């Protein structure tokens, strides 16, 4: 049975298994929209370079087994050297407090499922939940229809959370292919600051499809950083939609580091709802074999005196395929906009490919907007220079590639995360580099 038919057929069983009911009508309406839209195909402009048949022609279990046998040692290996962090751990969709560490105070910090069942937080969800996630996309509607897992964080006015928070999504002990629809909601009130790291991990040889939707609300003079660390195994698929709505004088960053997973699709939408806003999007992709990573970004400049920066670097080997489609929309009232967009790529083999399409749609006349992309191979002169100083060809290539990717890490404030990314870069490039 095709995945679309499975989704429609299993929905009533899924609803019956839930304890919370106040989203039932919204879920049924979302399923109907998904049924009408259907999964995107290569005939759709937004998916012309990404074929989803590998995902949609498999069968999945929609109610994963909750029991697991993950050991503390296995979990510790996923850490970033983050003893001073807080972390929240979901295994097979369920929050596990014994694996989590939450020491922060003065915040509303809950699992998504708990918040849905808590009357005290119903008002917050009605105000924020699914208000900026698009209702016109297949995967966002599918997520609303089936979401059960994820986390909710509200940071009150002027509260600065010093410790980064790492959110782990782990799948383990599943005998069938498994489908997760994770949902995250982050609210950062005026003057508050927080940094979140998100990572997904499949410990089984069965396939895991994760359909994730994240909504971020950043209020005036607030700062929200969200770091996506994507280094899952080759039986993992991830489709991610992140929506960030910013109020005046706020700063929001989304960094995306894609090293693993069979097929990864990242969709990122920034919505400006005030002046003097700063938005940062950075990405590093290093993949090989037959992996695919697709980045689709959009920034909606709706007010004057705002800035956005997009810097994506890609390194592709084997038969890997990369996609970058970055869009900047500048409204007619968004004068004094400063928008920068750059995508640079290196192909290491004849079988590797990249489709890149930076775009600007500008309706204001007093703006500073630029975009560009490059696709090529390593600089032969630089390679010769290093080899002439006794460095092997492999090490010289790795050093040049590390330098190429490094500037996309410059705005990471979390030192253990920066160290982890550096080590993953070195592992992917198969060279020893001292940090």
TrEMBL record:
Protein name as it appears in the record: Fe-S cluster assembly protein SufD
InterPro entries for this protein: Fe-S_cluster_assembly_SufBD, SUF_FeS_clus_asmbl_SufBD_core, SUF_FeS_clus_asmbl_SufBD_sf, SUF_FeS_clus_asmbl_SufD, SufBD_N
Pfam families: SUFBD_core, SufBD_N
Biological process terms in GO annotation: iron-sulfur cluster assembly
Top-level division of the source organism's lineage: Bacteria
SUF system FeS cluster assembly SufBD core domain ranges (all copies): 175-404
Upper lineage: Bacteria, Pseudomonadati, Bacteroidota, Flavobacteriia, Flavobacteriales
Domain SUF system FeS cluster assembly SufBD N-terminal, chain residue ranges per copy: 8-167
Family of the protein in this entry: Belongs to the iron-sulfur cluster assembly SufBD family.
């Amino acid at each position: 049975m095709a995945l679309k038919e499975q989704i429609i057929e299993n929905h009533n069983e899924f609803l019956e298994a839930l304890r919370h009911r106040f989203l039932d009508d919204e879920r049924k309406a979302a399923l109907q929209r998904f049924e009408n839209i259907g999964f995107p195909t290569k005939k759709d402009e937004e998916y012309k370079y990404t074929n989803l048949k590998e995902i949609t022609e498999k069968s999945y279990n929609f109610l994963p087994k909750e029991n697991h046998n993950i050991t503390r040692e296995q979990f510790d290996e996923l850490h970033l050297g983050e003893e001073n962090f807080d972390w929240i751990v979901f295994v097979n969709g369920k929050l596990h407090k014994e694996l989590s560490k939450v020491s922060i105070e003065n915040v509303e910090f809950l699992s998504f499922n708990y918040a849905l069942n808590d009357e005290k937080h119903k008002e917050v969800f009605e105000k924020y939940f699914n208000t900026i996630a698009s209702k016109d996309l297949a995967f966002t509607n599918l997520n609303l229809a089936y979401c059960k897992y994820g986390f909710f964080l509200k940071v009150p006015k002027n509260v600065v959370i010093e410790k980064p928070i790492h959110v782990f999504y782990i799948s383990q002990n599943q005998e069938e292919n498994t489908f997760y629809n994770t949902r995250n909601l982050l609210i950062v009130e005026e003057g508050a600051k927080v940094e979140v790291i998100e990572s997904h991990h499949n410990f089984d040889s069965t396939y895991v499809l994760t359909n994730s939707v994240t909504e971020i609300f950043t209020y005036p003079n607030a700062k929200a950083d969200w770091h996506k660390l994507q280094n899952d195994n080759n039986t993992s698929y991830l489709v991610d939609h992140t929506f960030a709505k910013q109020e005046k004088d706020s700063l929001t960053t989304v960094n995306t580091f894609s090293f693993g997973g069979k097929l990864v699709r990242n969709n990122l939408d920034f919505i400006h709802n005030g002046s003097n806003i700063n938005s940062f999007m950075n990405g590093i992709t290093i993949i090989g074999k037959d992996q695919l990573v697709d980045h689709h970004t959009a920034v909606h400049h709706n007010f004057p005196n705002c800035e956005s920066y997009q810097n994506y670097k890609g390194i592709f080997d084997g038969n890997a395929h990369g996609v970058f489609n970055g869009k900047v929309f500048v409204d007619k009232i968004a004068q004094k906009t400063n928008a920068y967009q750059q995508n640079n790529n290196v192909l290491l083999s004849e079988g590797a490919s990249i489709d890149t399409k930076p775009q600007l749609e500008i309706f204001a006349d007093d703006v500073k907007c630029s975009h560009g992309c490059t696709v090529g191979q390593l600089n032969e002169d630089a390679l010769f220079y290093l080899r002439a100083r006794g460095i092997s060809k492999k090490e010289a290539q790795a050093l040049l590639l590390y330098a190429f990717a490094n500037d996309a890490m410059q705005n990471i404030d979390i030192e253990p995360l920066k160290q982890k990314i550096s080590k993953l870069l070195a592992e992917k490039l198969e060279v020893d580099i001292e940090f």
